[in-house]
Automatic annotation (TrEMBL):
Residues 30-575 form the UDENN domain. Keywords: Guanine-nucleotide releasing factor, Membrane, Repeat. PROSITE patterns: DENN, PLAT, RUN. Pfam families: dDENN (PF03455), DENN (PF02141), PLAT (PF01477), RUN (PF02759), uDENN (PF03456). Residues 932-1040 form the PLAT domain. Belongs to the RAB6IP1 family. It is found in: Membrane. Its main location: membrane. InterPro entries: cDENN_dom, dDENN_dom, DEN5A/B, DENN_C, PLAT/LH2_dom, PLAT/LH2_dom_sf, PLAT_RAB6IP1, RUN1_DENND5A. Residues 764-928, 1112-1260 form the RUN domain. Signal peptide: none annotated. It comes from the Eukaryota. This is DENN domain-containing protein 5A.
Length: 1265
């Protein structure tokens, strides 16, 4: 962010620097810049030196020679002859110190004639050698180029195309007798704050003074002395005018209540990329992905990086930030941390030549070609369309095309905003009306925008292209129109962006979790603390925002923002950005006066653009301060002589020290000028008294980012090793925090969820956490990578592993290649010998993923594989096996890579092991459309052998996503494997038989179904007969299942951490779980059973929709609602004869007959009673007339489910309690005859009325109600 204020400096500029060719040391080739020696000598780069800098040093900003030298001329020296173009180029740069504080540099690079004879003859010699070499290449059949190219990829991430011969011949002409040689030189200002426009003018005027035929009014020293020692920084909210060589220069600084200082042209970024691309890049930056900007122009890299980070207000980019990455630091591209870096392209190579170590979560921005490559699964920014629309309106009112204008060249960067030209400039397609002109019709965004415009009724035709008249005469004198236009456009766009965050986080304070401890202990436990109630905040948000917001809340920038909120108690203490943001949030609250929790997705446009603009116009119209004019210095006669076309060697004696007494230093300068605290870089006004808080904020900033910034210096191997060691430590720490966060998220939920066994949190939150785990794994796998195929480092490693295993597999080996022949297979309890456990095989899991046609990319495959391994609880084990192939790891990774640091690797695998404590369904729930093989086994009762069974069984399996339809099961094996589209978590199995043959009675213990990819095994207990004339005469049953937990051999107990069931509920203590003996419960226990069943359903509906488990289980499963009501009706039921079973359904049928006859008799009951009776009889008739062979208990279950769905159960209980049939069939002590108990039962059942119960299709198949 350009809030930067790096020092106690109150001077406008800290240093003036000159870089260029050191004639003493001659021409040194710059190997680090990575240029190819096949380039002609004029196109090679040579080392540049810092020739001079004034003053020598200032205490608050020590001079960093390496960094300044690298960034002033990142490509080193370049040479030209008189035929080449030699336009001066301006660029800015930023130096970030390790503590995060920033200094800005502004550099103007121009060409001077080379006067040194030695240099000219050295260049001639290089040319002779080069031409001879080229001649050889042209006339030898095996080109040396090929060898050169093979050697390159390992050593450096960027490849350069070998220039075509024709191109070489065009340049291979430097003739000392005929040509004039020019070399680049650079003048530069190093400043504490980024006044880019002012610095550019200062440098351009200095350069003009050297090239113009007339010498400047005063020696150059006077002007440089003036800018270094006599021009102060403008105070907050004020403007300042000072003199350049030829004209006045104005700069102005926003006040403490405005957005922080930003002085780069945002419109340049929109011109280069277009609104749609800018917004995608902005989203990537907010989610802290790795961002690589790519351009031939340094200034473009800087403009885009600074603009994107400025638009993030109130958040700040917390990670590595190097808008211009010097060629010597290219190895930094494999940093396994989020970064924003700018890479210089030489204009000849295309993107395919660029070999980047990690691309899995990389956003690659090719600025010059208007092109952006996004990582997969990037969520959409909330209200994206309306947002684009609002930004476009602002841009178009200034005559900037929202589509971007690819032709906007560097020459235009001087910002010609001439409104008249905009309308008449037909070349760029800018015809009359704004919409028809600026927007390319084909673009889908724009088509969507126009649709939106029609809906919202905004007419774009009305947008005026701004008139020059807006700039009054008085202001025009002080500051040129272009610059004012730039400031106006900047502030308007920034306000629109800032307004999005103020709207999205208008009530963020409500969710900040204030620490209960004192600051000190809060600080030491910072890693473990949650500082923001994410779940509650997200539950308030409109659904479409969630994919973006849930990821954004996990970022470092959001955490730091909330930390700084916690550390500031009152307004005085607040950081500048926080204070401005909070003020805006308060204002919105006042305007909207709405309850903080009521969220709408209504798009609210920015309202405070005008006042922000006014503030700037006022400052520019009336200049607050004027600095001293440049004056003659005390120089010896003859000093400061001037030679046209050459930037002079300045007199260091007059420039090295400032004035001894300084007028404006004596004036009581505001406190913020005098303070020297390092914190200034983050906020222009921190009223800090205690150093404690400084330390807190600084350290809070560094949390989680073990390395903030690469040191820009000529790197020795030891420095690189040190940096990489920091990366390794950082990755390990991040892994520890992520695993902990994911476990707390699940364990915490499970602990409070005392409902039925369904515990996995699914939905947005889980997806976010798993996606960020996948990103972390990709970053770990690409650290120190040497060999990679495809975009995903992890998948590449897996493929190499697969290859090596297949090569080593012996042809006559046991089983298919790549299977691990270990004895350990997973054993599943309950299924017992019913199903041999799945073999654990890393390779098999890879094959499953490769067979999924829906996943097209390597990154997608790696993520799917991670999700599958998480769901199977094998992630740590698989990765351990992958890394156990040490030879392979050595081949693929450099020595310093994380994966070759043994201790850290062990700890990392140990952290991942903790995921086995909880159940994830992150594969099943995400890949909902893929085909999955399932294996079904029917287990008949051991007591009564089913060997004589003659009928043909069938099953139909249902899951949360879909169901299979009827599958015939072979009678002899009783198992079948079939493939169908992902059913999701399995819920019910309908099973039955066709009643054929002599012996069609069958006692089934359970059905076991396994998902052959994830290995999840579900057990559906039955324990009942199927057959006519036995049990309740049912030929089919609906079984409700639960997931079985794998246990190891030696531990046959049901061992589960955390327990998936409720702590054994009351009912379990009363009931002996043997299906044959009917347990006898007393009325209290029965009431409790009903209460627990209803409670489970109520809890189910109180959970967020994405986290609900299976409702079927709560209705029909063990101790569900059906079971509980069965207990009610069985209590005190008279059994007429000893051996004849009487079923509740018989009672209900008798009641139905009674009611139907009562209706005919037109009994004197009221209207209400008749309606209830009609409903009851209708349901009974429908269930009885179904074509399905479900027995009496199955019918009872169906009736209860339908009654629950239609909210009729409590009516029916009341009807039955009053029915004379009931009094005949029950003993006097029966629960159903006890008035008060029946009334409380009715009250409990009434609680179901507020819920909208939808039944699974399998429960009500064949009933047309």
């Amino acid at each position: 962010m350009t809030t930067g204020f790096s020092s106690g400096s109150s001077r406008f500029a800290d240093y003036f620097v000159i870089c260029g060719l050191d004639t003493e040391s001659g021409l040194e080739p710059d190997e680090l810049s990575g240029e190819n020696f096949e380039q002609s000598p004029l196109r090679r780069t040579f080392k540049s030196k810092v020739l001079a800098h004034y003053p020598d040093n200032v205490e608050w900003n020590p001079f960093d020679q390496d960094a300044v030298g690298m960034l002033c001329m990142p490509k080193g020296l370049s040479f030209r002859t008189q035929v080449d173009s030699r336009e001066p180029q301006f660029h800015s740069f930023i130096i970030t110190r390790e503590d995060g504080s920033r200094t800005y540099g502004f550099a103007l690079t121009f060409f001077e004639e080379v006067t040194s004879k030695q240099i000219c003859s050295a260049m001639q010699t290089l040319y002779h050698m080069h031409n001879a070499e080229q001649y050889d290449i042209l006339h030898t059949p095996t080109s040396r180029q090929g060898l050169e190219d093979q050697r390159l990829p390992q050593s450096r991430p960027v490849l350069h195309a070998a220039p075509a011969i024709s191109r070489l011949q065009r340049f291979n002409s430097y003739d000392i007798s005929r040509d004039t040689l020019f070399v680049s030189k650079c003048i530069c200002l190093i400043t504490p704050m980024a006044f880019a426009q002012a610095c550019r003018k200062v440098l351009e005027q200095l350069h003009q003074a050297v090239t113009s035929p007339q010498p400047p009014p005063l020696p150059l020293e006077s002007y440089i002395y003036n800018i270094l020692y006599e021009v102060p920084l403008p105070p907050s909210g004020r403007s300042l005018k000072f003199s350049g060589v030829y004209g006045p220069i104005v700069c102005q600084r926003p006040s403490t209540s405005e957005l922080p200082l930003f002085d780069f042209a945002i419109s340049e970024m929109f011109n280069l990329l277009g609104v749609e691309n800018v917004l995608q890049l902005f989203t990537c930056a907010l989610l802290e992905l790795q961002i690589l900007l790519y351009s031939q122009h340094y200034q473009r890299l800087m403009t885009v990086a600074e603009s994107i980070t400025a638009l993030m207000f109130p958040f700040q980019w917390q990670h590595v930030y190097v808008p211009i990455l010097p060629a010597s630091l290219l190895h930094f591209l494999d940093a396994p941390v989020p970064y924003m870096m700018g890479l210089h392209s030489n204009g000849q190579d295309d993107r395919t030549k660029l070999e980047l170590p990690q691309e899995a979560n990389l956003c690659f921005v090719d600025i010059d070609n208007h092109f952006i490559e996004l990582p997969e699964e990037l969520p959409q920014f909330p209200n994206k369309l309306e947002f684009i629309q609002e930004i476009s309106e602002v841009l178009m009112s200034f005559g900037v095309s929202p589509e971007g204008n690819i032709r906007s060249s560097e020459s235009q960067a001087r910002y010609r905003f001439r409104s008249v030209d905009v309308v008449s400039d037909k070349r760029n397609g800018n015809l009359g009306s704004p919409l028809s002109s600026y927007l390319l019709r084909e673009n889908e965004t724009i088509a969507r925008l126009q649709a939106l415009v029609k809906r919202t009724g905004v007419s774009l035709e009305k947008l005026e292209v701004r008139e020059d008249a807006s700039c009054n005469k008085d202001a025009r004198a002080q500051c040129d129109e272009e610059e004012l236009k730039m400031h106006q456009l900047n502030i308007q766009v920034r306000e629109v962006f800032a307004n999005r965050f103020t709207q999205m986080f208008a009530d963020y304070e409500v969710f900040v979790i204030q620490p209960s401890h004192d600051k000190e202990s809060w600080f030491t436990n910072r890693d473990q603390m949650q500082n923001f109630d994410k779940a509650s905040f997200l539950s308030d948000q409109p659904e479409p925002y969630l994919p973006f917001l849930s990821r954004f809340l996990e970022t470092q920038m959001f955490a730091s923002f909330i930390d700084s909120k916690i550390l500031c108690h009152d307004d005085e203490e607040k950081e500048h950005t926080l204070r401005v943001f909070d003020a805006r949030v308060d204002k919105i609250r006042m305007l909207n006066v709405r309850t903080p929790t009521l969220r709408t997705s209504m798009y609210q446009k920015c309202t405070n653009i005008e006042e922000a603009e006014k503030a700037i116009e006022m400052r520019v119209a009336k200049i607050d301060h004027t600095a001293l004019h440049p004056h003659l210095l005390d120089m010896k006669i003859g000093q400061g002589r001037y030679e046209q076309g050459f930037f002079p060697r300045l007199q260091s004696d007059v420039l090295s020290t400032g004035p001894t007494s300084n007028k404006w230093a004596k004036r009581s300068a505001p406190a913020q000028w005098r303070r020297r605290d390092r914190q200034k870089q983050h906020a222009e006004h921190l009223y800090l008294d205690n150093d404690q808080r400084e330390k807190y904020i600084q350290e809070a900033r560094n949390l989680g980012t073990t390395i903030r910034q690469p040191k820009l210096s000529n790197l020795s191997p030891s420095v690189i090793a040190q940096t990489n060691w920091k990366f390794v430590e950082g990755l390990l720490k991040e892994c520890r925090n992520k695993t902990k966060r994911m476990l707390v998220e699940k364990m915490g939920r499970e602990a409070v969820e005392l409902g039925h066994g369904e515990v996995s949190i699914t939905g947005v939150e889980e997806n976010t956490l798993i996606a960020s785990l996948c990103d972390l794994l990709e970053r770990i796998w690409s650290h120190g990578l040497q060999v990679k195929q495809g975009k995903s480092a992890l998948w590449s490693h897996l493929l190499h592993f697969l290859d090596s295993k297949e090569k080593n597999a012996t042809p006559g080996g046991l089983g298919p290649p790549g299977f691990i022949h270990d004895t350990e297979r997973r054993k599943s309890d309950g299924g017992g010998s019913a199903m041999p456990p799945l073999r654990i095989s890393l390779i098999q899991d890879m094959r499953h993923i490769q067979n999924i046609g829906e996943i097209k990319t390597d990154v997608g495959k790696a993520r799917a594989w991670v999700r599958l391994s998480m769901e199977k609880k094998l992630l740590s084990r698989h990765l351990k096996q992958l890394l156990s192939d040490h030879e392979l790891t050595k081949k693929l990774y450099k020595r310093y890579a994380f994966l070759r640091c043994d201790d850290e690797k062990e700890q990392f695998l140990y952290h991942l092991l903790s995921f086995n404590a909880v159940d994830y369904f992150c594969f099943t729930n995400v890949f909902t459309t893929i085909m999955i093989p399932y294996h079904v086994v029917i287990v008949p009762s051991k007591k009564l052998g089913g060997s004589m069974f003659t009928a043909n069984p069938w099953v139909c399996v249902s899951g949360e996503l879909s169901e299979t339809g009827v599958l015939q099961v072979p009678r002899n094996t009783l198992e079948v494997t079939f493939e169908c589209q992902n059913l999701g978590k399995l819920t019910t199995v309908q099973m039955g038989h066709d009643n054929s043959g002599l012996y069609a009675k069958w006692l089934v213990e359970c059905v076991v179904v396994r998902n052959e990819i994830t290995g999840h095994t579900y057990k559906f207990p039955c324990g009942r007969w199927l057959g006519k004339g036995v049990d309740d005469g049912s030929l089919e049953r609906i079984l409700v299942g639960e997931l079985m937990t794998p246990t190891t051999e030696n531990d046959e107990r049901m061992c589960r951490t955390p327990p998936m069931q409720q702590s054994p509920g009351m009912m379990r203590r009363f009931v002996t779980i043997s299906p044959s003996s009917k347990p006898k419960l007393n009325t209290g226990q029965i009431q409790e059973g009903v209460g627990e069943a209803i409670n489970g359903i109520v809890k189910h509906f109180h959970k967020p929709e994405k986290e609900r488990g299976s409702l079927t289980l709560l209705l029909c499963g063990e101790y569900g609602l059906v079971w509980a009501l069965e207990q009610v009706f069985q209590h005190g039921f008279k059994s007429p004869r000893l051996f004849k079973n009487v079923f509740i359904w018989d009672l209900l049928e008798k009641a139905q007959v009674y009611f139907e006859s009562a209706e005919q008799r037109e009994a004197t009951q009221d209207e209400n009673w008749q309606t209830r009776v009609r409903h009851f009889c209708r349901f009974m008739r429908a269930i009885n007339s179904t074509s399905r062979n479900i027995g009496k208990d199955g019918k009872f279950q169906m009736l209860i489910c339908l009654g629950a769905r239609d909210h009729l159960l409590h009516h029916w209980i009341a009807l039955l309690a009053d029915c004379p049939i009931t009094s005949q069939m029950y003993e006097d002590t029966a629960l159903i005859k006890d008035r008060s108990l029946v009334n409380s039962l009715i009250r409990v059942l009434q609680t179901l009325q507020e819920f909208n119960i939808t039944l699974e299709a399998s429960l009500v198949k064949g009933v047309g109600i």
